[in-house]
Queue: 4 jobs
Job 1
Amino acid sequence: MKKKSKRYQELLKTVVKDKKLSAKDILELVKKNSNSKFDESIDVSLRINLKQSKGGDLSLRTTVKLPNGSGKKEKIAVLCEPDKIDDAKKSGAEIVGSDDLIEKIAAGKIDFTKLICTPSMMGKIGKHGKVLGPKGLMPNPKLGTVSIDVAKSVKDIKTGLVEIRNDKDGNLASTIGRKSYSTDKLLENYNHFIETLKKEKPESIKGEFIKNTFITSTMGISYKVGAK
């Protein structure tokens, strides 16, 4: 068995048992324990109620616009018509192209973390779904990555639009900021994230939609939110 580092062993001493901690208390604790040399991400993970009253499982996929941004650096590519390339370049996207960009994607040259596509180009990129889909890069109107207003889509992603989706067991996770953020900014992002998620609860779901919530950092340990 791999031996735990001294740093991690020290973190384990901060585990709180038999006490309900609020999100604010946990964020302060997580920030305090984020003692690595880089700006760790602060992450929230949840378990949602998947079972619908009429049977079947819920598949949730949506976006949340964090008021203080996520702090995550995205490398955005824009796929558009040739006559819109100049405008797309001004939007702040790192990569812009038309058929040439499709050729690169087909060749497996995917050097970006988000792909925005204009509606008229979806017909051309659709056949590459097997390449982009598994990587979570296939443009989707519901996620703001298929848009006529490319500049707005790029700005939204750059300023804190994050995608959330659950797995087959009902787990989902998202970054809500960085350890360099103040506790107040992290708490504002956290509350906005939770409230947005609650609004996604289908009418067919009975009882609590969010079963449990945890907060952690990149190199830290996880704490369960037990109080408001």
Note: The chain has two domains: 21-71+161-227, 76-158.
Job 2
Amino acid sequence: MTGPGKWTDLRVRALSGLIVLAVGIFAVLQGGLALLLLAMAVSGLSLWELARLTGPLHPQRSILIGLLAAGAMASVLHLHGPFWLALLVLPSLVGMIGARRDRLVYAVYGFAIMLSVYAFVAFREGFGLAFAMWLVLVVITSDLMGYFGGRLIGGPKFWPRLSPKKTWSGTVAGWAGAGLVGIGFALQFGQPVWLILFSALTAFAAQMGDIVESAIKRRAEVKDSSNLIPGHGGLLDRFDALIGAAVFVLAWGFFGLPLPIFEG
């Protein structure tokens, strides 16, 4: 049974979410400098939030880590080449210097953030706009279907220890939503049926990305990664699912497994 309390944050959440979505979609459509600036902003602000979540509150130090992450991302995307990819791990290494509550968590998740941002830009530039839009739509649709499915249906929790609000109904609804995206792209671009399953698997990876970030916040005993986005919390609260999805797709391709090719 649903009550009005479950929907009190919907208006603010929807408005701020639309603004973030509009900025993101604009950068993805434009590519080039716009996408580079978005990648710098996402990596820098996300590492700033992570530094605050996993260590003592040293505002200047967290800001410096964020600036380092943004600069490293700009360098990797501008200079290209396998040698420069090593810069993606730089914020993790620097952030481990000095006192930190969760060194390993910070290092691994910090690298995952940098890797996912780089991967998404590489997808956009290497595989084209349609591929990037497929990934974004899988994550967004899974999140929306999960949000409404969980609140309308409710039921048993998916992983209450790490993510108390996530239900099985919302999780499965997210898979179904991603599958619908897969159907649409398969029909539009003549892709095989396996794209439907691959979209659902990508949605599952996105959900795991959300759960990982929830676990980090629980360890830090905070509700949101920051208060940058009204109704959503911080940037990590909004991009955690895309982090999981992008890393999954990158790993899938790294091991030589087939990726969808959208042409036409």
Note: The chain has a mean pLDDT of 88.
Job 3
Amino acid sequence: MVNKKIKLFLILSSTIFIFFTLYLGLNKNNYYTTENIVYKKIENFESYEFFSNKKINFKNISPDKKYIILNIWSSWCLPCRKEHKNLTELRENIEADLIGLNYKDKFENAKSFLSELGNPYDIILKDENGLISIEIGAYGVPETYLINNINKKIIKKYLGPINEENIKEIQSLVNQ
């Protein structure tokens, strides 16, 4: 009889514990926000230029520009295809260099993507294993970062494809 009471108590206690754990997890805010990445300094990294395969040091990119816009993209990414026309528009209307970071892509696929849709980038860097993107703070593609080129700090991060509203915001930040 005592043994049954102990088993019942353990089952009931375990059930209550699991219920409350799940309940608390459901009430937790699981939304990813970009506040934790803004004003983070991008650590220097080396990568290879997409077409020439020449090694490039990030700290030496666009030394004459106050801002850099870093766009992480892939040919296999459908939202990247959607945002491409917006990147082209952005490139034509800002005083900053647009740097592409090609994420975990096959060279021929990425080259075909650019041939089909055009190349809005001033420089394209390779991120073949995805480690550069992870180090920067990316969670997926596409992601776009407005970076102060003087101190290499992130001013703004855009999750997903950039849109017309994002373009206006970037233009106003860059043209201050």
Note: Helices lie at 2-27, 78-92, 107-117, 131-136, 164-174.
Job 4
Amino acid sequence: MAPMQVVRPQVGYSDLVNAPEDGHRYEIYEGEVFVVPSPLPRHQMAALAVYKHLDTYASVSGGIALAAPLDIVFDEYDVVQPDVVFFRAERRHLVQPDAVTRDAPDIAVEVLSPSTAVTDRGRKMPMFARYGVPEYWIVDPVLEQLEVHVLDGKTYHRTQVAHVDDTVRSVLLPDLSFAASGVFPAG
């Protein structure tokens, strides 16, 4: 007789929608639900700085930048809340003001926190690649660097590591650039 296995039921987006509000933020990776802790001020300052740069670009280009909390529902069992997302003008229609977003953004940005760094580099990076997010930025507010990763087939390759004295450049949006120093709050 085979040994018994513990079977955990998959949690889906519909389960989150129907759950009572408890004040927590959740993400789902392959049907497994995780509580996302509230970020520290350093994280929020960096995330908002990146958002401002993308939002300024959006106002000129016709795209749209959005900041968390915002569910990106790739499918019923893969639901994430990137810190910042950007949709180009030609894909802006995929973001509906009164509906959940079910399409991959053009750029997803995650700002590392001690509690999320392993997930942001581990589970999320291959998930974003699997769902075709063309560019993934990882911001490390402690090391004061911003990495630009570009989707190449089914995996990302890092095209830039911008430090405080560098200029951040998007591959997807070649006319977008900004000083990395503006992303990191003064100590």
Note: The two ends are 61 Å apart (CA to CA).
